[in-house]
Amino acid sequence: MRISVIGCGYLGAVHAAAMASLGHEVVGIDVDEAKVEALRSAKAPFFEPGLPELLSSASATGRLSFSTDMADAAGATVHFLCVGTPQKRGEFRADLAYVEAAFTALLPHLRPGDVVAGKSTVPVGTAEDLAERLAGTGASLVWNPEFLREGFAVQDTLHPDRLVYGLESADGEPTVDGARARALLDEVYAEPLSEGIPLVVTDYATAQLVKVAANSFLATKISFINAMAELCEATGADVTRLADAIGYDARIGRRFLNAGLGFGGGCLPKDIRAFMARAGELGVSDALGFLKEVDSVNMRRRVRVVDLAREVCDGSIVGRRVAVLGAAFKPNSDDVRDSPALSVAAQMQLQGAHVTVTDPEAVANAAAKWPDLRFAASPLEAARDADVVLLATEWDEYRALDPDALAGVVAHKRILDGRNVLDPVRWRAAGWTYRALGRP
Ligand code: UGA
After folding, report:
1. 256 CA to middle of ligand 1, Å?
2. Which of 87, 222, 295, 299 to mutate to test the pocket of ligand 1 (most atoms within 8 A of CB)?
3. Is 302-436 the same fold as 2-197?
């Protein structure tokens, strides 16, 4: 199958390489010349485990190319729309400017029978609008949301939990175009489907909602446990034990019940806000009123950790040296979009602390965003003469830190475990003041 992938960010670059590795002939299109240049030489433009290897093996087959020219999408049968939908400045709504630009640029290159497959996370109703604009071209639209996690993007693309197709439908049944689009996507995903990966075939509205519903549920789960952390803080209980105990109930499950600094990144925060905004437009804002609380609980954790720093520093962080371990929004990523770690680091700096941040992969991105912060190459360098150390992103190398080695460089042995991943007994035994979120 000849495929075009429009937008080569965290989603599109991985999708393009993965589709080529499945045997398809793929062209990835992006407006960013530097990104396209890197991808052409099989270099990943961002940190994603497994992507460099996938890019090299896919490029070696000769089936994967990249271009900045939308005309190169012509001739492909399936066109995956993978551009970003960030939060609109000053609003909760999603900014659809990239979707609009990509779709408009693609239109003149479509042939009758082509299928545009939307993967970007969009407000429900977007697919219907785009489908209408295909009328008269002979091309059709399918909505095929993506559920990949950064850090596991290659695995999640090649072996997803499920595939969802939103087809053009009438009276609850796919139209002729809808059925044709389905057959083409079945061909694209023949290999994952042959592994028995569940396939949900539905209409446009449901497919678009599945994506934001999934992210909203995950955000709610995280904020639920962080709300419990607030209760634990008020009662002396331990939220990690609480999560273990409720997580044994299979109906609840232990995954995504890690209390700490909360969720960030380019997806969960902006998706729940865009969902709330869309619900308002649809006249059902009450249905998603709880997401406002989910957002507030999440944001309160960032404030709480700054308060904790103040507490352990005898009431003030002004002029104190703070080492922040982690800048990425989660481990195994160099993505700093709405990163809780970086947000807390910046907040402490703005409140008068001298903050030094370190991260195994995200320092360059973090420095571009917050040039006023200081950056260090390693935890030991960041922690030199620190009055307090904050573990903000749970990279394996931070989980494995040796309290005695760190004790040798800091001014005061005070550690804040912003992700509840250190062993309090071990750190206290080494003479550290250990504080965490939702743990005594
Ligand atoms: C999320 C979803 O998990 C993906 O399924 C979805 O495809 C993607 O958004 C998207 O919409 O593109 P991602 O943003 O890569 O994926 O990150 P997650 O693994 O969901 O983590 C989000 C945040 O929640 C991170 O900041 C993480 O540290 C935090 N988190 C996660 C917690 O605070 N506690 C947990 O128990 C789990």
Report:
1. 8
2. 222
3. yes
Taking the centre of ligand 1 as the mean of its atom positions, its distance from the CA of residue 323, in whole angstroms, is: 24
Q: How far is the CA of 40 from the centre of ligand 1 (A)?
A: 29
Atom of ligand 1 nearest to the CA of 211: 11
Q: Could you tell me the distance, in angstroms and rounded to a whole number, from the CA of residue 183 to the centre of ligand 1? A: 31
Q: Indicate the SS3 state at residue 190.
A: helix
pLDDT digits (tens, 9 = 90+) for 396-424: 999 999 999 999 999 999 999 999 999 99
- From the CA of 264, give the closest atom in ligand 1: 26
Nearest protein CA to atom 3 of ligand 1, as residue: 149
Among 333, 200, 219, 331, smallest CA distance to 267 is for 219
267 is catalytic: yes
Mutate to test the pocket of ligand 1, among 149, 223, 332 (most ligand atoms within 8 A of CB): 149
The fold of the 2-197 domain, in CATH, is Rossmann fold (3.40.50)
| Closest atom of ligand 1 relative to the 153 alpha carbon | 15
CB atoms within 10 A of CB 132: 9
Give the strands of the sheet with 64-67, arranged side by side: 64-67, 25-29, 2-6, 78-81, 115-118, 140-143, 163-167, 199-203
Task: Please state the pTM of the whole predicted model.
Answer: 0.97
CB contact at 8 A, 30 and 8:
yes
302-436 CATH pick, 1.10.20.140, 3.40.50.1470, 3.40.50.720, 3.40.50.300: 3.40.50.720
Q: Which CATH architecture has domain 212-295?
A: Orthogonal Bundle (1.10)
Across the range 128-137, mean pLDDT stands at: 96
Which residues are paired to 25 by β-bridges?
2
Radius of gyration of the chain (CA): 23
Residue 413 gets the label, from left (phi > 0), alpha (psi -120 to 50) or beta, of: beta
Per-domain residue ranges of the chain = 2-197, 212-295, 302-436
What pLDDT score was predicted for residue 423? 98
Output the residue whose Cα is nearest ligand 1's atom 13: 149
Q: Whose CA is nearest to atom 33 of ligand 1?
A: 262
Helix (H) or strand (E) holding 131: helix 126-134
By C-alpha distance, which of 86, 63, 93, 69 is closest to 6? 69
- Residues belonging to the chain: 440
